[in-house]
């Protein structure tokens, strides 16, 4: 499905991603971990073509996407939606319009100028918001929502593109543990129910272990681990994070584990 071959990105002297290779043969939920500066964001940005590779290839269903230009590149970007740590919503715009922005690629300039959306798209946007448990927030301004709710709006906007792949760059890094859990569960559900591939850069080991089928560990631009959560032992983690004997897993933990999972969703302050 997805094959990354010797992908390299250099910024002058600095090699941010160094000959990264991996193959994904079915839609999986993949966590990318590694310390700050390891190259995680650069890898995701190249997959989405926000950033051009220096050398190497990215094949999706047999087609090299690193060479796509113009409309082909934009089409790939809508098949491969990206979610960011800071949500990247339009703060003063209402939630449903933010979600409808996910259809921007296929609307005319005039329709965009007058904020005209087909009725069917509006219905779909509300359905997606409902699926994510935030339909009642639809008329509110994005800035009036909590971080966890805003990230779910960003996921809804991504889903509006009906993407084959969802790339998430530290999607829960700005959220408290409870909202982090809600967002990760939403991504997991989208992966399982829709069969979409999810690749998420994650700061914490426990999150990667808990939600992902596969974990890729990066260190200094290189992929130094690629395996299952079970194979990601403390020793392997120490190697990925380049930490010495003083390495503690707690330092990369999110306390998610300590949440009371028996509480019904409606009681969760979002
Ligand atoms: N536009 C750029 N120009 C120059 N250097 C860059 C640029 N983007 C990234 N780098 C460098 O490339 C390396 C990898 O950066 P990247 O942002 O991919 O790391 P990361 O693993 O996402 O880190 P973090 O966990 O802090 O987000 C870093 O050394 C960074 O300074
Ligand atoms: Mg990053």
Give your account of this protein's structure.
By secondary structure, this protein is α/β, with parallel strands linked by helices. The protein has a single domain (2-245), classed as 3-Layer(aba) Sandwich (Rossmann fold), CATH 3.40.50.300. 33% of the residues lie in helices and 23% in strands. It has nine helices and ten strands. It has helices spanning 40-47, 70-79, 95-100, 109-113, 119-131, 147-160, 177-194, 205-211, 234-241; strands at 2-11, 14-24, 29-33, 55-60, 63-64, 80-84, 165-169, 197-201, 214-219, 222-227. It has a six-stranded mixed beta sheet, with helices on both faces. Strands 2-1-4-5 form a four-stranded antiparallel beta sheet, covered by helices on one side. Helix 5 packs across helix 6 (147-160) and helix 6 (147-160) packs parallel to helix 7. It is globular and about 55 Å long. Residues 255-270 have low confidence and may be disordered. Residues 40-41, 169, 201 line the site of magnesium ion. It comes from Lutimaribacter saemankumensis.
CATH topology type: Rossmann fold
Question: What does the average pLDDT come to?
Answer: 88
The protein's oligomeric status is single chain
Overall geometry? globular
The top-level CATH class is Alpha Beta
- Distance between the terminal alpha carbons, to the nearest Å? 36 Å
Number of β-strand runs: 10
| Helix-strand category | alpha/beta
Largest sheet: 6 strands, mixed
Protein name: Phosphonate transport system ATP-binding protein
Keywords: ATP-binding, Cell inner membrane, Cell membrane, Membrane, Nucleotide-binding, Translocase, Transport
Pfam families: ABC_tran
GO cellular component, one term: membrane
């Amino acid at each position: 499905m997805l094959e990354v071959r010797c992908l390299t990105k250099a910024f002058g002297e600095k090699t941010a991603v160094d000959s990264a290779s991996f193959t994904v043969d079915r839609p999986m939920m993949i966590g990318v971990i590694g310390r700050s500066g390891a190259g995680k964001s650069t890898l995701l940005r190249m997959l989405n073509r926000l950033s051009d590779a220096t050398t190497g290839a990215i094949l999706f269903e047999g087609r090299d996407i690193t060479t796509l230009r113009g409309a082909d590149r934009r089409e790939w970007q809508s098949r491969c939606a990206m979610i960011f740590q800071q949500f990247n919503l339009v703060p003063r715009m209402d939630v449903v319009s933010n979600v409808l922005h996910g259809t921007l690629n296929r609307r005319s300039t005039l329709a965009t100028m007058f904020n005209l959306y087909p009725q069917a798209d509006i219905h779909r946007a509300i359905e997606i918001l409902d699926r994510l448990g935030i339909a009642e927030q639809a008329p509110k301004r994005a800035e009036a929502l909590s971080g966890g709710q805003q990230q779910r709006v960003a996921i809804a906007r991504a889903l509006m593109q009906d993407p084959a792949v969802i790339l998430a760059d530290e999607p829960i890094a700005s959220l408290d543990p409870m909202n982090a859990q809600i967002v990760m569960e939403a991504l997991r559900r989208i992966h399982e129910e829709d069969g979409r591939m999810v690749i998420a850069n994650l700061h914490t080991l426990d999150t990667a272990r808990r939600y992902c089928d596969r974990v890729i560990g990066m260190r200094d631009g290189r992929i130094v681990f690629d395996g299952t959560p079970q194979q990601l032992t403390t020793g392997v983690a120490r190697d990925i994070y380049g930490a010495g004997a003083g390495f503690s897993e707690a330092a990369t933990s999110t306390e998610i584990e300590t949440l009371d999972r028996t509480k019904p969703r409606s009681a969760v302050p979002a």
